[in-house]
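ok trying this again, last paste got cut off
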Amino acid sequence: MVQVKDIYGILVAGFLVLCMLMAGCTSQPTEPVNATETPTPVATTPAAVTTTSAPAEEFAFNETNNNETVALPTGSKIIISLAENPTTGYSWNVTSARGLSYVNDTFFEPETGLVGAGGVHEWQYLAAEKGTAEFSAIYKRPWENVTENETTFAMAFTIE
């Protein structure tokens, strides 16, 4: 004769098997969670400025602008895009100085669909105050100590 404990054990095991089967039957969303467009290639100098419908100018920078100093008008929108692959544990540890007002940051997944492929991390700031400001970042695993061999990115801004 089957005891009550055995019946409960069978029910729990059956429930777990059902949960595992249902987890395997889920589908991926048809629209990606992050933006589907790769950020537009950015200019290597601030001379290539895009103007939006707002009166503020927009300046875009990437790895090619590393260690540059750029003059910008107050109120300008600053976009910094850097390659990043968080699946490896690495991410950009960003520091920005007074004068830059943080707006947003977004990670854009790659369009390849390959598991483990890197994407682009984009930070948006406003040139809020006249004077000098800096943006710096170090590409490392957060749990590891700095070894001075990490990839770094830095820009200085003169806000007029």
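PB: full thing came through this time. The radius of gyration is 24 Å.
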